[in-house]
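Minutes, structural biology subgroup

Action item carried over from last meeting: produce the structure token record for Pentatricopeptide repeat-containing protein, mitochondrial (Noccaea caerulescens). EB confirmed the sequence was re-checked against the source entry. Recorded below for completeness.
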Amino acid sequence: MDLVMCNILLKAFLLVGAYGEADVLYRAMPEMDLTPDAVTYSTLIEGYCKSGQIEEALEMFDELRKSSVSSAVCYNRIIGALCKKGMLETAVDVLVELWEKGFDLDIRISRTLLHSIYASGGEKGILNLVYRLERLNSDVCLGMFNDAILLFCKKGNLEAVIEVYMIMRRKGLTITFPSTILTALVDNLRALDAYSLVVNAEESALPFMDVVNYTIIVDGLCKEGFLIKALDLCSFAKQRGVTLNIITYNSLINGLCQQGCLVEALRLYDSLEKPSEVTYGILIDNLCKEGLFLDAENLLDRMESKGLVPNIVIYNSMVDGYCRLGRTEDAMRILSRKMIGRVTPDAFTVSSLIKGYSRKGDMEEALRVFTEFKGNNISADFLGFLSLIKGFCTKGRMEEARSVLREMLVAESVVKLINKVDAELVESESIRGFLVELCEQGRIPQAVKILDEISSAFYPSGRNSSSRQRLQSLKGVSVEEVKKEDYVHDFHSLHSTVSSLCSSGKLKQANEFVISVLSCMPR
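Output recorded by EB:
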């Protein structure tokens, strides 16, 4: 029998589970003047690993190490098997030995090891591995370090990302996933860290970054208020030979507007060769918010003269801006002269007009707008309905307010919004159901109070800043105490408290709490 036939027979024994026979044949090889080769060891190690006999696999692996045979396959196979058994320290020892022998680590085994270590020791486990591997030759660690960064990004361990990055920078290694790191940092409101990583990196520390990578950071810096850093990064990118695009400039223009630098934003716009619809949309919206309607309309005309078509969002900015200042005639002019025939008004358009007329106390016009657009299958949104109801209440026209409330509680967009609240109130009375009950009982002011709190929860501009403090005072409050005193004076506190009780598995207490609060409300 020659070596090839012996290896085939060994594989056959292992396939049928005849491990004893395989071991006997292996031990008899010296008597047959046969010397085990890489195929012999890999066959036996793989067979033992597949059957979960890790001790036998390690014993065979030790015999391989004592021999003159070299096999990267055996090292990779044993590392994978050790990971499955949770023997991670031994797996790392074998990994170091593999690299010291100059073998390549299989990419699948590398990622299996990283995920196994993370599952066992979390962020600290991976960092300990990185610290140990830091002493080895730089090139062999490159792939694993990049995989570690990718894993940390996916898990949101941004401090660990920066730690590994700094180690790679010291070793002069190239990071393969810059956009992954940058996006993760920006998404977690750490654009300043992303900025520092880029501008402080040496030429060889990061690969060439394109305009997309730079724009991600610029946009993040602008949104977080670091406008000077955003402008610095643009200059840095240009020095690196990167040509910025309109998306980058739109981020800068939006950032300038958010910081109140409208003049500078307009100057930047003037320097652009081809502003986009988004560019005009940002500027028109901010001009309207500042009450500069003539400039906004001039910009709208200029946009159209360049062949760009304003969308509904741009028109809504103008309509809403005029309505906020009570200039409903101008808002209607925009609607009739500029919008009709070009874009279809939507729920936001209708609601802006309703709010504008309601602020002026002109409920006849508010109702006319509501009815006219409803006839065209365009309904008001949550805030539009609420403004109409509150306007009628202010005028003492309670039956009309009640009629609008009925329509509101069956409007699809409103039902979806209220259902988001109901979804968290497990085994408690439906908020929508309670509102319907209040409506039928004619208790419109109480219904408006609840609707105001829902509005505060979903539209931040109207949020009551004391809601969190109120929530703190609710901790430990019993049902009996609620009956004695009006602890829950806003919907947000009720919602947060009930949600907390439900997440703790206290469904009965949550149900009792809601019922008690509802029963205490004035009728």
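Discussion: Confidence is low (pLDDT under 50) at residues 462-493, 519-523.
Next step: EB to file the record with the rest of the batch.
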